[in-house]
Design brief:
By secondary structure, the chain is mainly α. 71% of the residues lie in helices and 0% in strands. It has ten helices and no strands. Helix 3 packs across helix 5.
Length: 206
Amino acid sequence: MTELAAAPAAAATDRVWTLARRHVVNLALAAILILAAIPRFTSVNWDQGNYLQPDERFIVMVTTAIDWPHSVSEYFDSAHSRLNPYNNGFTSYIYGDVLIFLGKLGGNILGKNSYGHVHIAGRGLSAIFDLITVLLVFLVGRRLFGPIAGLLGAALLAFTPLDIQLSHFYASDTFVATFCLATFYFVVRAVDRNRWRDHVLAGVMA
């Protein structure tokens, strides 16, 4: 009777271990991403809104100054678009539109769209994009050199101090890194598969 009772339990244990071995790479990647997220989302408001990073301070000023256009035609009218930093009292802006558009949108969603608050949304987005970069490192490494190389690359980036630091700034660094690596990834896929969607995605990311 005891042996009969133990048999189903042993079979269930075997199934669990078989499933774990089959998905060990995915489980390891999930663990890396979770561990990477912890320091990136810790102390988001590390400077208490004093903007000790000068680029971030300027980006926050631009983000709070711009506003959404009333129509698509107004957006494409660069001389009058309210999303154009040059129409909001700034004579220079070099950090890219996607950064401030996403920051503005994040601020609207969180209700933190004013100076002294919008950086919370911006830094959260920076951390998210940095996590996407960690994932992309895995995907590129796996495609070029295998899953072990992908996991190693992702783990190294996940715990790189400079990368963790940059994810705490509402600045262009993490955003640019994500789009650059995404472009490279889809170019590699396009070369391997020659599928039109990979070519399109590479162009969109670029």
